[in-house]
Structures are given as C-alpha cells and as structure tokens.
Specification:
808 residues; alpha/beta; 18 strands; 39% helix
C-alpha cells in the first residue's frame, strides 16, 4: 500500500456494536473506524485449489499445503464479505497506524490480522485489549496500550497461534476424514467418519467412560447401624460406613455382632465449620451452572454472555480464568453498589465498603496474574428496567450474584459429631452421626435455598458417599454413657460412574486433569505458566462447538434430562477403536493436551520473529503427522460394524426413498420372506441400510448378463431413433453415433458420459445439455444434434442406478 501524505489511524473492530461503543471517544478527523462481521475470509475448498482434490480418493492423499488459500467468507444470510474487505482496503489508503480493537482473544486477533495480511498492509499495528466495554474499562485499555509499545508484535504471536490451530484443524480434518471414511469406515455406515484434532480425543474421553459404564458390575456392600440408648433417656443411631466399602458380608456380620453388645461413653464434638463462597465464573463453569439450573445448551449461554458483553454489562466472556487481578479490588464496592441498585432485595446484605471480604490466592478470588482474561463479572453499567429481559436478565443476575457472594463473609455452620469406638475382632471400628445447624449464613444469604446447588461433583465420576447425617440430634453430653439396643446390617449397591452431561463437557475438556488417575499424567497436565489453568483440550472460545460436531457424525446422542447426559453410540465406539488401532496418538486426550500446550507457546513468544519460528516448526510437524496418518490408514482394513447398530436420523430429518428403492426392497423382502423394517418407506437411510444388507452386490452378477442388459438398452434407443423424423436420423448418422455405443453413456459419472459423447461423436455439449436425473437421457438439439425424450422417458425408470438394475 502506498501511504498518502496525511497519515491516519484506523481502528479495526470485530462487530459494529463494539465500534459504536468506542466511536464517542474519537475526536480527530484523521481517525477511521472499520468493523468486521466475524471472520471475513474463509479457507478455500480443496477442489477449488486442484481439480483432482474434488473427489474423495485415497490416491490423492495426503493433501498438504504450505499455506491455506483463502477466499471471501459469507454472512449468515449468504452474502459475500467481499464488499466489506474492499471497503477496508479503501479505508487503509493513507493509514500509517492500525489499532486492532477486536475481542481480546486469539480469534479476535486472527479476524483482524488475516485481513491485514491479505491486503498487504505493512504499517504499524497496535493492540487495544478491551476486557469490557464500559467507559472505565475502555480508558484503562487505552492506558495499558500506551504503556506497551510492542503490543502489536505480541498480538501477532497470538494471531500465529490461532493460524497454526486453523492450519492443523484444516489438514487433520480434511485428510483424516477422507482417509478414514474411504479405508476404515464400515460399508453399513454411509455418513463420513469425521476426524478432528480436538473432537477425536474428546470422543475418546466419552468412549472410555462409556466402556466403564457398560462394563460396570454392581456389587453389594454393607453398612452397620448401631442404635444406642443414653443414660438420660435419649436414643440415637450411629453408623459404620467407611469410605472403603465393606464388600464381604462375613466381615460386616463380625462387626455387627461386636457392636450389638457394646456399651460405654459417647464422644461429642462440637465445632464451627466455615464455608467459603464458590469461585467466580469462567466461560465453561458458567455454561455448566446454566445447564444445571436452566437447562441451557452451552452455545446458548455463550451467545447470551457475548451479547451482554457487547452491550457493556459483563466483562469478556470467553475466558479460562475464575480469578480477578489484585489490582481490581478497588472496583468491587462501586460495582456491588450498582448491582444492588437493580437487585434491591439483596441491598441489605451488603456491608460497608471497608468490610467487604477480599480472598486472595489460588483458593480465593484475587490473584496477581489471572491469565490472559480474568473471570466473568458484572460492571458499573447495569441493565435498566426494560433494557434486557428474559434469558439475558437471568444470566446477568447469576453472574452478579456470584460477584456479590464472593465479597461477603464465609457461611458458618455449628456442627456436632457423636461417635464411639467399638472393639471388634478386626480392630476398633468407628460409628458416628453428625448434624449441622446454620450459625451464620454469610454469602449463602444471596442464594437462599439455592446455595446447596453450588457444590459441583466432578463429571464422569461415581457420586461419592456422604457422611451419615441427621437433621436433628438429641441433646447428648460428651462422655455420656450409652448402651447398644440394636445392631443391624443394611445392604446397598455400588453405582456406576455418572455420564458426562451436555453442560459439563466443556469443563471436562478444560480440566482434563480431573479425569486422569495416574499421578504422572496429572503432573504432565499441570501448567507452570499459569497454575490456575491446567492443560486441556481446545480453547474456551470453541469447546462448546465440539458436541454438535460429534452429534452430527452420529458418534454420540443425548439422553433425556434437563441437562441431558451424553451417550456414545456403537458408531462412536467403533470409530475411536479404529483410530486407536491405526494411530493411537490421536485417541489419547493427554497427548492432545500436550500439543495444545505447544500451540500456546507460539502465542507466548516475546518477539514476532520467535513466534514465526515456532509457528513454522509447528506447521512442519503437522505436515509430518498428516503424512504418517495417511500412510498408516492406507495399510489398514475396514472396521466391522453390525448394520443394525447404525443410528438412523429421525423421521423429521430424513428424506423419503425413491419409488425404485421401495420397489426393490419390497421385491427382495418377498423373495426372501423378510419383514420390511419400520419406517423403510418414509426414511431413505433405513431403506438404504436394508438394501445394503440384503441386496446382492453388482460385482457378483455375471458379466454376460451385464453386457446383455447394456445391449438391451442400446436396442431400446434404436427403437426410439427409428421413430424420429428422417432428418434427425440422418443427422445422427452424419455424426457417427453407432447405436451400440450409446450403452457406454450409462456410467455413473455425468462428466464421463459427456466426455465419451464428445470423443465418439464429435459433439460438444454444455453441462446443462446432458442430464440423467428426472429423465433417463436428454441430449439437447444443438446445431442438428439429436434430442431423445418422449417414448424413452416412458420406458425408462427415473434413477440411472435403478435403470441398470432393471435392465439386468
């Protein structure tokens, strides 16, 4: 670009709404503002790069590119982004400095940088990181940019990290999906077997859990109840229910017999138990809470949070962190004052500004460095009556209450434990019962009865046994004598691990460390750069997009429930087993987390040159992995899968089969005495699966019959030609169109048919001039060429494949 004499500054925004929020700060006439609409450029389809890449063939793989070619993207309405890119190109004329003001994340950086690179801009670039869109946050962002002269260089590293992620996703998804679908996919499954760098190891987590659930065999275990009468006349039941469950009935009976004759003093311990408020929300934990409380899909929650951010009511929502920086403690009083001006019923809970609680450290809410983006919290700007409503208001209230609770005192419970030690032949055994009363609600007053929902269970694990408790304990003194009046066994059954739910999956991906038991693997997943954010799968911005991809591929399905559990299908289990058999590294979630860590190192590079070096090395490693993957898959066999296990789309989504398919299936069922499956006549997938299982393959039919059928086809064409006017017959003979050669036109490729016609008759027809859907054959009458329709249409079936079967 050639700069003009008058230098200008251009602000590059991600959305028009953000641009309008900041335009009031710009007074200089030399300041220009442009906005994108998400990604303006998109990766080019492989078939548009090379013709041989259009068809899915193993001999064309691997498809490896040094740089992914891009084209203009399109909006949700289908309009091309070319006019927007052209407008930005025009606006860049004379611009000396570009300030990127997109959302403060890798994707936001990429949205701007990919356009600047595409247009060849080489001027100065700075980065304005807008963690929130209220006035105070905007002014702080400008101040921070002024103190960081190399903000553009550091942001270029973030762009290269996002670019490498796209590069890997493109090559692994393109090559892996084609190769696995062509080589490993069972014949009964007609959908592509989609492969991805993040979605495949995510499926592996779910598949491992599915196997544990299916292999689980319930076992009886035993608890012993001991009823004790005290000297004061009170009666209380104590329990022996150790964490290590008693699975041996003989052991349980030995303890029961010893307990039945017990007498002695009861120990009573009373103490105050402090309960701290839960952590603030990251994107993933917010999605989990909304799924549990409201039944929302994580993508719906993300959309609401993004819109509240755009309106200036919440901080940046696509964050991994659950902490705030120490420097923001001074904002809490003002923000809480704004919150309770809307949530007026909570105003009485707010202490004086000097009495707010600030919990610091990893177990608190404030740390020195919370990472790239801090937790999601409300701002000084709060929704006014009528400005937001419905789900937006429910989400804002949830975040606002979390922020308020984080600055209130701990809840305090008065806890009483009554316990005895019973001597047994197996050693002393503890029997106990506990009860609690709320001494001071503290932060729990914000939630009322909902406070109990804050205790989250680790997804994918069996529900832990709770300590025996009772709602009300009788008055008992410490060391008060007691005597056993009864001892009994109670039998329960062990439970399988809980399924991971739709709302929990993003948390599982981000906190992979909670899913592994091996201490060495746990240590490997630690993140020295940011201990609060262990290594995981994907990014906070994209984790909620993985489950819809797995559903589309029919690898998983959702069961019923407010927050529906995820169940892996037989197809998903077969797919992940095939991946692990062929290339185990791609079915290893921990191994994938290590690659994610390597990607993050690109974004942490101190200089542009270092970031470029790391990115080039990562892309070279990606190309090598893709080549190894294709080589290994090419040497493997297809997976065996029972056709009855293949899931079928719902009747609402399925297309009906053609009449020829129904007739063929009906004739096979009649010949073999089979019963047609339910839905065959309305669902093409069900009909096709039935034909795949029961119809004889074409390769098994004798070639003599095949040739005879083609000859019959040619004879029918000859009959049709004999009915045409003489002028058209002579034209056909002049063009050297032997009737028998018409049979060659009945191949499965329209392109091939046109090529044969051109080579053997000298005719050159446009694509619209030769069609086989709707009519068996149609050759347009161009410059004396023949046109076949009418009687031929009446004689031939509509589908060419069905026509071949009909002739044979």
């Amino acid at each position: 670009m050639t700069p003009h004499s008058a230098s200008r500054t251009l602000f590059f925004f991600e959305k028009p709404s953000a641009m309008r929020q900041l335009q009031r700060f710009f007074k200089s006439p030399s300041t220009v503002c442009v906005s994108a609409e998400g990604h303006l450029l998109a990766a080019e389809e492989p078939g548009n790069v090379r013709d041989e890449w259009k068809s899915w063939r193993l001999d064309t793989l691997p498809i490896v590119l040094e740089r992914i070619p891009v084209t203009y993207g399109s909006s949700r309405s289908g309009q091309s982004h070319k006019p927007k890119v052209d407008a930005i190109k025009q606006a860049l004329q004379g611009v000396e400095r570009v300030i990127i003001a997109t959302d403060p994340g890798r994707e936001g950086s990429m949205i701007a940088w990919e356009v600047l690179e595409h247009l060849g801009y080489r001027g100065r670039v700075d980065r304005l990181k807008l963690g929130a869109l209220d006035e105070v946050s905007i002014r702080r962002a400008f101040a921070a940019m002024a103190k960081e002269p190399d903000s553009g260089e550091r942001d270029y590293a973030a762009y290269l990290e996002a670019l490498c992620r796209q590069y890997e996703d493109y090559h692994l998804g393109l090559n892996g999906t084609r190769a696995i679908s062509l080589r490993l996919r069972p014949p009964a499954f007609r959908q592509p077997w989609r492969f991805g760098g993040v979605q495949t190891p995510t499926l592996a987590i779910l598949a491992d859990l599915e196997k544990r659930i299916r292999d689980f065999v319930p076992q009886d275990y035993f608890r012993i109840a001991l009823t004790v009468a005290t000297s004061s006349g009170a009666e209380i039941t104590l329990w022996h229910a150790p964490k290590d469950k008693i699975l041996d009935q003989q052991v349980a009976e030995t303890i029961q017999q010893a307990a039945a004759s017990w007498s002695g003093p009861l120990g009573v311990e009373q103490k105050d138990v402090r309960r701290s408020p839960p952590r603030l929300f990251s994107k993933d934990t917010l999605a989990r809470r909304c799924a549990k409380r409201f039944g929302w899909d994580p993508q719906h929650t993300a959309k609401l949070a993004q819109e509240l951010y755009d309106q200036g009511y919440l901080t940046y929502p696509r964050t991994e962190s659950e902490h705030l920086p120490d420097s923001q403690t001074g904002d809490a009083s003002t923000v809480i004052g704004s919150v309770v001006a809307v949530l007026t019923d909570l105003a009485g809970l707010v202490p004086a500004a000097g009495d707010l609680v600030f919990r610091k450290g990893n177990k608190g809410h404030y740390v020195k460095d919370p990472g790239e983006h801090h937790a999601i919290v409300p701002l000084r700007k709060v929704p006014q009556p009528g400005s937001v409503s419905g789900d937006h208001l429910r989400l804002w209230e949830l975040v606002a209450k979390s922020f308020l609770a984080a600055h209130l005192p701990d809840g305090i419970d008065a806890r009483t434990v009554v316990a005895v030690q019973v001597p047994t032949p197996l050693g002393p055994k503890r029997f106990s019962i506990s009860g609690s009363v709320i001494k001071s609600p503290g932060w729990r007053a914000v939630y009322g009865a909902e406070a109990d929902e804050e205790n989250e269970i680790v997804p994918g694990k069996a529900k832990p046994d709770e300590e025996p408790t009772t709602g009300r304990l009788p008055p008992i003194r410490d060391h008060e004598p007691g005597t056993a009046t009864d001892a009994r066994l109670e039998t329960a059954k062990t439970e399988p691990p809980r399924r991971i739910t739709r709302g929990e999956l993003p948390v599982v991906m981000g906190r992979l460390v909670d899913q592994v038991e091996n201490p060495a693997l746990k240590a490997a997943l630690e993140n020295p750069a940011n201990p609060n954010e262990p290594k995981g799968l994907g990014t906070a911005a994209t984790r909620d997009t993985i489950l819809p991809k797995l559903q589309k591929s029919q690898y998983v399905e959702l069961l019923k429930g407010k927050d529906p559990p995820i169940q892996v299908t037989e197809v998903g289990l077969a797919f992940i087993a095939a991946v692990r058999r062929v290339f185990p590294a791609y079915g290893d979630p921990v191994g994938r987390a290590m690659f994610e860590a390597d990607l993050a190192e690109i974004g942490r590079a101190a200089t542009r040159a270092e970031a470029a070096r790391r990115a080039a090395a990562y892309q070279e490693r990606t190309r090598s992995r893709v080549k190894d993957l294709i080589t290994t898959i090419g040497q493997s066999d297809a997976v065996a899968l029972d056709p009855t296990c293949v899931p079928t789309p719902s009747a609402a989504d399925a297309k009906p089969p053609t009449k020829a398919m129904i007739d063929f299936a009906t004739s096979i069922a009649a010949q073999r005495g089979l019963k047609l499956p339910r839905g065959l006549k309305s669902n093409s997938e069900i009909c096709r699966a039935f034909l795949d299982q029961h119809a004889p393959s074409r390769s098994s039919r004798p070639g003599r019959l095949r040739n005879r059928g083609l000859a019959l086809r040619a004879k029918r064409c000859f009959v049709m030609l004999s009915r045409l006017p003489n002028s058209k017959q002579s034209s056909a003979h002049q063009k050297r169109l032997p009737i028998l050669r018409l049979a060659a036109l009945f191949s499965t490729s329209i392109h091939r048919r046109r090529s044969i016609l051109r080579q053997r008759t000298g005719l050159s027809l446009p694509k619209a001039g030769f069609q086989v859907s709707g009519r068996a054959m149609l050759v347009m009458d161009i410059s004396g060429c023949l046109r076949l329709q009418g009687d031929l249409q009446k004689q031939e079936p509509r589908s060419l494949a069905a026509a071949r079967d009909h002739a044979l």
